[in-house]
Write a structure and sequence with these properties.
- 39% of the residues lie in helices and 13% in strands.
- It is of the alpha/beta class and 561 residues long.
- The strands form three sheets. Strands 7-8-12-11-10-9-13-14 form an eight-stranded mixed β-sheet.
- α6 runs parallel beside α7, α7 packs parallel to α14 and α13 packs across α15.
- The two termini are 37 Å apart.
- The model has no long low-confidence stretch (mean pLDDT 94).
Length: 561
């Protein structure tokens, strides 16, 4: 056992003494050490119930003859940090979480791990750690929250809060009216990750697809007792994985990562998957690029469309058959590698062989898909030679191709203030720059900005282009992850007010319509602004992170070169 290095033999008397001092008996010490890697906090609903899942997982480990050892990582709620300086810490926290898990597991010689992440950056951070460590591992994610009710009908943010916010800003409603909607579940009515196809649920689903989560991991709602039972089953199953020495890299392969992108496209996941999947693959020693996203997005249709692109929620997708039904359809259409393995010991073919679609309005047949191509598109051109991402499944048809005049802002705050003060007009292309991984630093999400566009009815009359990123809850003609970013000298840094910018989603192009001579003059005169942060973790992240096209992951100096 790996744990023998800290517990076996007469020279390890002190280590055994510390373990016994924590209440463990010799019989527990003799068993395999199983880390229960939790991300519980009482700050936000996505993590509120994880202590219960951790106890269930630990019970499963005990039932199967292991010795559970629980520890916690940090966890940020993007929804709370949104539209504040705290949001700069969200994406970098993925790296801290991966490092934290690696540190705890290696320091304490654990033989296997059950990982219990909740929200946006916690899931990919733990996936990166599991693949780095490459010891037996299994995931049980938080699950989706369920919607509340208001005035006799199911209610959630897109359906109620945004219209009410518009009324409040126009003096047609009061803040007290907002409070009532908040009380009735504007962010969900239960514990769990935000209820739509936002980043947390996207990553929970993809964890199931790549084989590191049990069937149902992606869609079983957080409050269901089924999820608690699943956690217990995960605790039992990890002991089988330890006994058989089955490691994450035995399960996660290049093909399984391509499967993740395929499902991503089929159901229109968050644009943040284009950051996380390459970083996760890199942790496994694999290479996934935006070219893979582009190729697959052209090959598969979008057969499900969930909130924020519709009023369909994760609980509805679960009721319709869940991810097993989606994967079964993809296998039948020969766009999915069904022979890939999972932590169950079965292949995806075996897991999904009896899967059924119970609602074809939610999981459509391929020949009745919402669109003939996938839910995300990679745009390239002189403005984004490394690529940019748009969630085409959430864009109105008339905005899939667009050309307009640039209105340039050097931060999210500048752009948000301009929209709220009616300084952005129909026909503009809003450009938000110096918000990438290095320039932000931290590449904060811009949900508030996209909501502001909705409030002022600009989401069908303007486009938004940025080297930053968007929340999974954002929709509309918003193009993010422009690479290279402004702080790295990308062309986005040279745009001036009034320049013509064009994009075409079907042709996958994005172009700054300025002649090369003018661009050369601007580049010669360009000076990168000084760093916004010069000390602490964000400064280190800005120095060590890669481009968004490589997942914005932290690399050592030698790897960056």
């Amino acid at each position: 056992m790996r744990s023998d290095r800290i517990k076996a033999g007469p020279l390890k008397w002190l280590q055994r003494g510390f373990l016994k001092c924590s209440g463990r008996i010799q019989e527990e010490i003799d068993r395999p050490f199983i880390g229960i890697v939790n991300s519980w906090t009482d700050i936000f609903p996505g993590a509120l119930h994880l202590d219960k899942l951790a106890r269930a997982a630990a019970d499963g480990v005990l039932m199967a003859g292991g010795s559970p050892m629980t520890f916690n990582t940090i966890g940020i709620c993007d929804g709370i940090a949104m539209n504040s300086s705290g949001m700069k810490y969200s994406l970098p926290s993925r790296e801290l979480i991966a490092d934290c898990v690696e540190t705890m597991v290696e320091a304490h010689g654990m033989d296997g791990i059950v990982l219990i992440p909740s929200c946006d950056k916690i899931i990919p951070g733990m996936l990166m750690a599991a693949l780095r460590l490459n010891i037996p591992a299994i995931f049980i994610t938080a699950g989706a929250a369920m919607a509340g009710t208001h005035q006799g009908k199911r209610y959630f943010a897109e359906d109620g809060v945004v219209p009410c916010l518009m009324d409040v800003l126009q003096g047609k409603a009061t803040i007290e009216d907002m409070y009532k909607l908040e009380d009735n579940g504007s962010a969900g009515a239960t514990c769990g990750s935000c209820y739509g196809m936002y980043t947390a649920n996207s990553m929970g689903i993809l964890t199931e697809v790549i084989g590191l989560g049990l069937p149902g991991n992606g869609t079983v709602p957080a409050p269901y007792s089924e999820r608690t039972r699943m956690a217990k089953q995960a605790g039992i199953r990890i002991m089988d994985l330890v006994r058989d020495d089955i490691k994450p890299r035995d399960i996660v392969t290049h093909k399984s990562m391509l499967n993740a992108i395929t499902v991503d496209m089929l159901i229109g996941c968050s644009t943040n998957t284009a950051l996380h999947i390459p970083a996760i693959a890199d942790a496994a020693g694999l290479t996934i690029t935006l070219d893979d996203f582009d190729r697959i997005s052209r090959q598969v249709p979008q057969i499900s469309k969930l909130s924020p692109a519709s009023f369909v929620l994760i609980e509805d997708l679960h009721r319709a058959g869940g991810i097993s039904a989606v994967m079964k359809k993809a296998i039948d259409e020969k766009v999915f590698y069904g022979e890939e393995k999972s932590v169950t010991g079965k292949t995806i073919n075996e897991i999904t062989q009896d899967a059924i679609v119970y609602d074809e309005d939610i999981i459509r047949p391929f020949d009745k898909a919402f669109s003939n191509e996938g839910g995300l598109a990679v745009l390239k051109g002189n403005l984004a030679p490394e690529g940019a991402i748009i969630k085409v499944g959430g864009v109105k048809p008339e905005m899939l191709s667009y050309s307009g005049q640039a209105k340039v802002f050097n931060s999210e705050d500048e752009g948000f203030t301009a929209i709220m003060n009616n300084k952005v007009k129909p026909g503009d292309v809003i450009v938000i720059r110096y918000e990438g991984p290095k320039g932000g630093p931290g590449m904060q999400e811009m949900l508030a900005l996209t909501i502001a566009m909705m409030i002022f009815r600009l989401d069908s009359q303007c486009a938004l282009i940025t080297d930053g990123r968007f929340s999974g809850a954002s929709s509309g003609p918003v193009i993010g992850h422009v690479a290279p970013e402004a702080a790295a000298g990308g062309l986005i840094a040279l745009i001036e007010d009034g320049d013509t910018i064009s994009y075409n989603c079907s042709e996958r192009t994005i172009t700054l319509d300025v002649d090369e001579e003018t661009i050369a003059k601007r580049r010669a005169a360009w000076v990168c602004p000084p760093p916004r942060v010069t000390s602490g973790w964000l400064a280190r992240y800005a120095q060590l992170c890669t481009s968004t096209s490589r997942g914005a992951a932290v690399k050592a100096d030698s790897e960056l070169k």
